[in-house]
TrEMBL record:
<dbReference type="InterPro" id="IPR050237">
    <property type="entry name" value="ATP-dep_AMP-bd_enzyme"/>
</dbReference>
<protein>
    <submittedName>
        <fullName>2,3-dihydroxybenzoate-AMP ligase</fullName>
    </submittedName>
</protein>
<dbReference type="InterPro" id="IPR045851">
    <property type="entry name" value="AMP-bd_C_sf"/>
</dbReference>
<dbReference type="Pfam" id="PF13193">
    <property type="entry name" value="AMP-binding_C"/>
</dbReference>
<dbReference type="Pfam" id="PF00501">
    <property type="entry name" value="AMP-binding"/>
</dbReference>
<keyword id="KW-0436">Ligase</keyword>
<dbReference type="InterPro" id="IPR020845">
    <property type="entry name" value="AMP-binding_CS"/>
</dbReference>
<feature type="domain" description="AMP-dependent synthetase/ligase">
    <location>
        <begin position="38"/>
        <end position="395"/>
    </location>
</feature>
<dbReference type="InterPro" id="IPR025110">
    <property type="entry name" value="AMP-bd_C"/>
</dbReference>
<feature type="domain" description="AMP-binding enzyme C-terminal">
    <location>
        <begin position="445"/>
        <end position="521"/>
    </location>
</feature>
<dbReference type="GO" id="GO:0016878">
    <property type="term" value="F:acid-thiol ligase activity"/>
</dbReference>
<dbReference type="InterPro" id="IPR000873">
    <property type="entry name" value="AMP-dep_synth/lig_dom"/>
</dbReference>
Length: 532
């Protein structure tokens, strides 16, 4: 039996409770409480609807009734693959009322990822849109269900096409709030950026995740006049809880869900809704900058522009600060927990050149060398961390957990410098991950699929510098026979294997032989030297 959730040691948990980090509230009670405070205020806006807190509370309890009638109950896992629409949030809280656990997947995931996640979690239901960007999610869901016996229900927002329609879940009467989960239970499963073969999931508890959202809201000084524009996908930790949706609902503000990150569409929403805070990644930043210079839209309501997810070059940061009226906030976060932000009053150069400081005093940070010894101040080392909202173990991943943690500290795989002020500067990474402007994936996962191609004997995927993506991916390929695969061959192959399209190969380089380490793995240090 593998471990679903590795709890914090009781000693640490007691400390986090005593210091007020963990407040003993579930997400269901959280929504009830904020509805009590802000009932008639607008909680949620998307392209079709505007919901008050009371609407959201009622609808989520009615959908909970519909889900209960399907047999969904406490502890059940439900795969959620919805775009930035109100239904995501209604469903999320409906699951919370039942003590069930949403699994946040990526909109781009295809059958390779979805079958894996469904099997790993033994999910009972899968919730999808009908058709997005000409892709029929209902067919994907049918395929996943046919492969995963636990998956009993497919629920569709839009035309159900033979599955269950989301709107039919709206039971006539809302279910009462009943405490079917405890504050220390897992409230949601987030997706990890990945470093190994198969995607990993991160269990976040009610106590820890609500703490995370509250601290992030404080770092952004949010009040009940906050209007947050959700640009990045809503299931992403940044958008959902840093402060994102939960941080804004916690203060009685309004969340506006953007259906896509296109800047001209988003600036229209920004102007119309008088948005005060939003969050983007470095991949979008140049597009947003160009549009900000060209647009007639009034962007003057914006107070905080958060940018995070990948390294933001200093020059780009300075341009952002000069172009947008509000304050730039660099955000260095991870679905695993630790959240660092620059302060709103900090000197412009600190904001342009650092990734900020941890949001909780109780966040413990170590910067260590290859042997685990702390490096002198200002030197580069791997960031290790533990704290009140950082995981102690991945979901059902005992083997991986044995090496991903040391002494309770999570090994982030990020290489950082810590300045005397405590600010962190992210300078690189030790983990085998590709980060294309904030969209990340595990190199070994894609290598495994590449090596299944008949023309590939060995494959190794490495990041190479790219001016605005930060990184692009280069596949070193040793061909299996006389013919060599082209990039197009490999992309067609990856798509046919059911891999999300963002896990891509930007360039192929052919090798006669794979340089290898003494233990027979591809020698990525030697390959990296070929890239410079
Ligand atoms: C360099 N690398 C960064 C940054 C993340 C807020 C913001 C981002 C994420 C996120 C998040 C970086 N500069 N500013 O969850 O709440 C890289 C690091 C990190 C990994 C985590 C949030 N911000 N990174 O990106 O789980 O390598 O979370 O370990 O997707 O992204 O990725 P993810």
């Amino acid at each position: 039996m593998t471990t679903d959730f590795v709890p914090w040691p009781e000693e640490d948990a007691a400390r986090y409770r005593a210091a007020g980090y963990w407040r003993g509230e579930t997400s269901s009670r959280f929504l009830e409480r904020v509805t009590g405070l802000s009932g008639e205020r607008t909680a949620l806006v998307d392209d079709r609807v505007r919901l008050t807190y009371r609407d959201l509370f009622e609808q989520s309890r009615r959908v909970a009734g519909g889900l209960r009638a399907l047999g969904v109950g406490a502890g059940d896992k439900v795969l959620v693959q919805l775009p930035n629409r109100a239904e995501f949030v209604v469903l999320w809280f409906a699951l919370q009322h039942l003590g069930a656990v949403p699994v946040h997947t990526q909109p781009g995931h295809r059958h390779a990822e979805m079958i894996h996640l469904a099997r790993l979690t033994e999910a009972v239901a899968y919730v999808v849109p009908d058709v997005r960007s000409r892709f029929d999610h209902r067919e994907l869901a049918s395929l996943v269900r046919a492969n995963v016996p636990s998956l009993r229900h497919v629920i569709v927002v839009g035309d159900p096409g033979g599955h269950i329609a989301f709107e039919d879940l709206l039971a006539p009467a809302p279910v009462p709030v009943e405490d079917l989960a405890r504050p220390g239970d897992v409230a949601l499963l987030l997706l990890s950026g990945g470093t190994t073969g198969a995607p990993k999931l991160i269990p976040r508890t009610h106590d820890d995740y609500l703490c995370n959202a509250r601290l992030a809201a404080e770092a952004c000084r949010l009040g009940d006049d906050a209007v947050y524009l959700a640009v990045l996908t809503i299931g992403f930790n940044f958008t959902f809880g840093c402060p994102g949706l939960l941080g804004v609902l916690g203060v009685g503000g309004t969340v506006v869900l953007a259906d896509n990150p296109d800047p001209s569409y988003c600036f229209g929403l920004l102007e119309r809704e008088r948005v005060t805070i939003t969050a983007i990644n470095p991949l979008l930043t140049p597009l947003w900058l160009d549009e900000a210079l060209a647009t007639d839209a009034d962007l003057s309501s914006l107070r905080v522009l958060q940018i995070g997810g990948a390294r933001l070059p200093g020059d780009l940061a300075r341009q952002v600060a000069a172009t947008f009226g509000g304050t730039l906030q660099q955000v260095f976060g991870m679905a695993e927990g630790l959240l660092c932000t620059t302060g709103l009053d900090e000197a412009p150069e600190v904001i342009a050149t650092t990734q900020g400081r941890p949001v909780a005093e109780a966040d413990e940070v170590r910067v260590v060398d290859e042997h685990g010894a702390e490096v002198p101040g200002g030197a580069v080392g791997e960031l290790l961390t533990k704290g009140p909202y950082t995981l102690r173990g991945y979901y059902r991943a005992d083997e991986h957990n044995a090496t991903a943690f040391t002494d309770g500290f999570y090994r982030t795989g990020d290489l950082v410098r810590r300045l005397p002020s405590g600010h962190l500067v992210v300078v690189g990474r030790r983990k085998e991950q590709i980060n294309r402007g904030g969209e990340k994936f595990a190199a070994p996962e894609v290598e495994g699929h590449l090596e299944a191609h008949p023309l590939v004997r060995a494959a190794a995927l490495l990041p190479a510098p790219h001016p605005y993506l930060g990184e692009r991916s280069v596949a070193f390929i040793v061909p299996a026979g006389t013919g060599a695969p082209t990039r197009e061959d490999l992309l067609t192959h990856l798509a046919a294997r059911g891999l999300a399209a963002y896990k891509t190969v930007d360039e192929v380089r052919l090798l006669e032989e794979m340089p290898s380490t003494p233990v027979g793995k591809a020698d990525k240090k030697a390959l990296a030297r070929l890239l410079v």
